[in-house]
Amino acid sequence: MNDVYINRTSHYFPNNPVSNDEMEEYLGYINGKPSKSRRIVLRNNAITNRYYALEKGGKITHTNAQLTAAAIKELFRNDPEGIRHIDVLSCGTSSPDQMMPSHGVMVHGWLPQLGSIEVVSPAGVCCAGMHALKYAYMAVKGGDAKTAIATGSERFSASLVANQFEDEAHKLEALEENPYISFDKEFLRWMLSDGASAFLISDKKNETGLSLKIEWMEGISYADHMEACMYMGAEKQEDGQLKSWLEFGHEEQNEKSILSIKQDVKLLSPNIVPLGGKILPELFERRGLNPDDITWYLPHMSSNFFKDKIYEEHIKLGHHIPYEKWFVNLSKVGNVGAASVYFMVDELFHSGQLKKGDKVFLLVPESSRFSYMYALLTAV
Predict the structure, then answer these.
(1) Fewest CB within 10 A of the end CB: N or C in the chain?
(2) Which residues, at least 6 apart from 204, have a Cβ–Cβ distance to it below 8 Å?
(3) 62: left (phi over 0), alpha (psi -120 to 50) or beta
(4) In the chain, what is the greatest distance between 2 CA atoms, to the nearest angstrom?
(5) Which residues does 63 contact at the CB level (< 8 Å), separation at least 6?
(6) 234-244 pLDDT, tens per residue?
(7) pTM here?
């Protein structure tokens, strides 16, 4: 089995950063009214900037595939011929531009210089980027490929604009009910951001400068006993089951904003952190990892609300990871789902703070039906 290294990282954000006060200039006002929940959510999540593939007024500027292709091109900014020697392209996202074809092949379509290669598109939500990385890692580790590109990307903004909710708001108003959209639909409008990041994976480390050796990657799902918490293209029923968008008529889809992203916040808060820590004692013991050996801790957080809760959960498990080891950039870039952990690794990789021998622990939760991915990298 080959050793596997991350030799380059890159990122691409669309347009200029958007401040908290500007958000509704891009996303629009639902039913012409400012949001009642925006300031409450922003106060808790501590996000101060995010990026949208939109102009003010909601005009779309980039597709998800274009964002991802741009991040890949950044990998080869100083080595334009290097892109012609890639064996596998693995692209993870939870917001593809279409249901078919897959996100990965649409990205490939913007990069003819890659030639005809293997392409894979893991589905999912925040863990999709880690699944893409694991596929690239396994392909290189098993010898099926010498080089691979793994990406994480999102373009959430197109599903957050006000016109996606107008039919529902008007229906509520016509029924003489409160015309504000329910909190489970509004919540994520103030959390999510657009962007793409890419890693160049190889069976050889860099001859000069640092590489990140992927020591191991593991994942776990608790869907065997947990119901859906975040979902899109479905409506949650009283028994916890999801009713597919395919079972709704066209008018009903619009009147209930079925294609919007929703979060069951009552299910999220009591479960997302404890389940993320559940496997850690066994995982650390089996992998021979002492928390004291971790140099950098990169936990993906949807909101700063969870930071202290994650810290306290580690203490409860006997794994003290002090805040000075944490490396997060949520406040600057927002929650970019499948790309968030890539952005953290990318920023750390280019920060000048990494030293040979540093151990970097990644933890990515996914609230959709409570899945988690973990990985350990070593700077070499």
Answers:
(1) N
(2) 5, 7, 146
(3) beta
(4) 68
(5) 53, 97, 106, 155
(6) 999 999 999 99
(7) 0.94
> Where are any strands of DSSP class E within 168-239?
195-202, 212-221, 230-232, 234-236
Phi and psi torsions of 296, nearest 5°? -130, 130
- Under 8 Å between Cβ of 155 and 67: yes
What is the residue-wise DSSP string for 98-123?
SSSS-HHHHHHHT-GGG-S-EEE---
- Structural domains in the chain, CATH included, are 5-209 (3.40.47.10), 214-226+262-379 (3.40.47.10)
| Chain length of the chain | 380
d(CA 226, CA 166): 32
Q: H or E element: which one contains 33?
A: none
3-state secondary structure of 70: helix
pLDDT for the residue numbered 178: 57
> Which of 9, 2, 6, 8 minimizes the C-alpha distance to 197?
9
* Cα 131 off chain centre by: 11
**C-alpha to C-alpha distance for 351 and 110, rounded to whole angstroms:** 29
Give the dihedral of Cα atoms 249, 252, 253, 254; nearest 10 deg.
Answer: 130
Minimum mean pLDDT range among 160-164, 270-274, 301-305, 331-335: 160-164
pLDDT tens figures, 248-293: 998 899 888 898 888 898 899 899 999 999 999 999 999 999 999 9
Residues linked to residue 118 through DSSP beta bridges, in sequence order: 88
